[in-house]
Amino acid sequence: MKYLYLFPRFITLVSLTILGAIFFLLFSKSIVPYLAKEYSKDFGIEYKTIKGTIFDGFIVDEFRYKNEVSIGVLKVEYNFLSLLSPTPTLKKIEAEGVALDIDEIQKDKTKTKIIAFNISKLTVKSAKAIFHSNEYLFDLNGSKINYRDENVDMATISSNLKTPQANAYINGHIKSNNIIVDADAELSKDITDKYLYFIKVVPKRLNARVDITKDRVILTTKLKDIAINSEQNISISNTDINLSYFIKKDNFYLKTKYNLSYNEHRAKIKQEVSFNTKKEYSSNVDLSITSQLPQYLLRNIKITINGNVKKHTANISVGNTKAKLSTVDFKDFLFDLDWLHFSATGSLIKNGDELSLNSIIFPKKDSRFLKNIDIKKLLPITLSAHRKNKTTMLKIDANIFNIALNEKSAKIEGSGNLGASRFALLGDLNSKTLEIRSKARSLKKFLTIFGVEQNSKELEYEASLEAQATLYFGDKLAVKGRVDVPFYRVKMKDDEKYSGDNGFFEFSFVEGELSIDRYDFMVRDYKIYSNKKSKILIDSQNNLELVEFYLFDNLLIRGTISPSKKIADLELKSDGYHYRKKDIDITLKADLKGSFNANGKQDISGDITILDGEISYVLQNDYKISDEDIIIIQDLKEKKTNTNRTLNIHIDSAKPIRYKVKGIDLLFKPDIVVYQNDTKGVQFFGIISINSGKVKVEDNIFEFDKSEIYLYGERPLNPHLNLTLHFQTPDSKEIEIYITNTMSSPVILFSSKPTMSQNDIISYILFGEASSELFNNNEKNTNKISLNTLFLGTGLKNMLSEKTGVRVDTLSILTNKTGNLGYEIGARFNKDFRLVYKNNTISSIIIQYNLRKSLRFDVEVDENDQGVSIVYVKDF
Q: CB count, 10 Å around CB of 234?
């Protein structure tokens, strides 16, 4: 029993002793100083005083860890029981007067393994960090701090920072050593003066997000509006900035996006910049113009810039245009330019406000603007420009092309020449206009510049030109001008000639649309003009679309023309085209279509309706040729045609058209088709209806009854006739004349009321009385017979030559013994061969052939017999 009592007593005493010892250790204020004194030096820790207990925490004055960390007052609070968990938790840490030497910490290679722990709350006051000899002052508050395997998490972190660059308040968190905070910063004057001096009004506060890891620091922010000091017309807005600093590489990377405004122009810019402390940098700029631009300007510009302490280069790309710029001191620049139409190399020198440029230009053979120009005639091409005291001088010398310009106070003056053509320029940069005046005395010489040589006999030409134009280069590129042609001369291969004086045309050009405002030219004494605006579109391939092209204000042409492919498709329309010349005055309605290709193939078709008019044109007769003595009827040989043209044009009239020439006045309606295929010449098909009319021969008037002329496409033209004419004699006798068959071989029939003989009808037509009275062969009337015989011959000759095309210069009037009328007509085919038709008592044909000058061979054939005679001719 005694032992049973002693054992519990012993256990109780031991337990009380241990508990007392533990209590003493936990709550004794002397234990913490003792432990700190014994072990602090082993860890490189120094302090002035330390007090507290193991159970709930301690306070250290003037804490110091090596040369890296010093703390004026360090207060640590915890619950001893929370220290016994796998991850000890500290209730609170407060530090005041903290100093961190980041440079020394980075030098310390000592590796101390730190167990995982948690801190519920962290407060740091009046702290400073030294980094690269710069002091950074801050206060810090944090909560829910977790450290495990060298990774730190912090639920919240806030701090007030004072750095050489800015004063800022930050608020954020830490996740796996990644510090992400939002900062509200005020930049220092040193920073704004050094780096932001170009900004007119620097924002007082800057809101940014900072993302920090052990390898890099990323700062992102936005700026609303930025005005530039030196350029009042430039402003920047909606700027996004992303700045990264890579610690190990000691390299910065800047990514920005902003809107740029210059006067009325707007652009969006994306820029990426990489630079380091060795003054090595590279930059990529992508500029996109958002404001309205002329079509001739491109919207996207790409710039790449690289540089170091020795050299700086920039590569600029605008569409197919490439440029390279290099410099060492930002005073002397070298550049290379490559464009679609030329390349260039040169130098740019900047000395204060003085700027000089010198360049050599190399045109490209494949340029569509230069393909027709002999480039050798341009070489060498040099360009020089100089700007000083707000005055700019520009000079281009290209052998056959020279220009000199001066600009001052936005006013431009200049002059130059292109070959033998000289021009003058006057411009205003404020109003964005440029006036050009030029003169070319010889078009033939001027066109030789473009490789057009007049070395073909198929076409000869010459002209002089005077031009004046105003170029508008604002939002839209536009040209408005006038070209005067004091004279022009054109001679075709068939000796056909065209000429005119004092012609002109006025034009305007806006964004690919060419307008001919009005024009006026003389062609073969005929005025070709229009006061209506014609519109022509020109595409990138230089193809022309005739939207509206007017002739004489009422003849409209539409279609397309491709000069490069040498093809065209055109339509010609008019509801009332009035054509007037001295012998034609008609109004037409037209609807024609035509296509033309590079092989010279022409295809023209459509309809022409004559609405009203009068024609007094005298047709040229193709059925007679002249000799010294006679006109003979013959078929002209058709010329061989090698045409590459097809025609199918229908011509009619809305009402009868008047045809009036000397001795003829009639109304007719055409309904014909003008036709041509690839192998034959022009053919005419259809009918010409004569409604009414009169023909006057001498003092006799023949009235047309309804008649027709038929066209069947014969070549040469040989219409079929169905003509009816009415003649009334002075004594009221009615004579009808019917003309049938063809134009080359007409058949003429006569009838009368009352019935008369053919001789009497002809006599009435020629002399107004019957032949029996006219040719009375007695002695008393000998003079009358002779005189009337002469009148009869004259009347026949005039009627036949003027109205039928047969000019009878050697027609003889014969009378036989009974006094009957006869006649003899001779037709000479050439100098040796002659044919004579005689109608006296009987009809006969005589063929005469000259064997030599005084000897002739005659063969006579009549109704009864034939005979051969050899005639000797002697001149007296």
A: 16
Residue 735: Cβ-neighbour burial (10 angstroms; 0-12, 13-18, 19+): buried
Calpha distance 725→707 (Å, rounded): 9
Q: Strand pairing of 664-676 and 657-661?
A: antiparallel
Residue whose C-alpha is closest to residue 403's, from 365, 442, 355, 361: 361
What confidence score (pLDDT) does residue 782 get? 40
CA distance 475 to 643: 50
**For residue 222, what pLDDT is reported?**
86
pLDDT of 280: 84
- Quick one: which H or E segment has residue 26? helix 2-27
Look up tokens 């030109």; give the residue.
465
Cα–Cα distances (Å) from 199 to 218, 252, 484, 622, in that order, read 23, 22, 55, 92
- Contact of 155 with 130, CB cutoff 8 Å: no
pLDDT of residue 608: 92
Instruction: Please count the other Cβ atoms lying within 10 Å of the Cβ belonging to residue 782.
Output: 11
Q: CA end-to-end span of the chain, whole Å? A: 207
Q: Give the separation between CA 589 and CA 575, rounded to whole angstroms.
A: 5
Better-predicted residue by pLDDT, 270 or 9:
270
Residue 380, preceding peptide bond in cis (omega within 30° of 0)? yes
Other beta carbons within 10 angstroms of residue 659's beta carbon come to: 19
Least confident interval from 122-126, 257-261, 514-518, 626-630: 626-630
The H or E element containing residue 867 is strand 866-872
Q: Choose from 290-304, 448-462, 693-707, 811-825 the range with maximum mean pLDDT.
A: 693-707
The pLDDT score that the predictor gives to residue 345 is 92
Structure tokens at 487: 């004279």
Percent of the chain predicted with pLDDT > 90: 13
Q: What contacts 281, CB < 8 A, 6 or more positions away?
A: 273, 274, 275, 305, 306, 307, 308
Prior bond to 746 cis, omega within 30? no
Amino acid in the structure at residue 42: D
For the whole model, what pTM was predicted?
0.52
- Which tokens hold the place of 208? 């940014």
Pick 730 or 802 by higher pLDDT. Answer: 730
Cα 646 to Cα 186, 494, 592, 674, distances in angstroms: 86, 21, 13, 10
Round to whole Å and give the CA distance between 573 and 588. Answer: 10
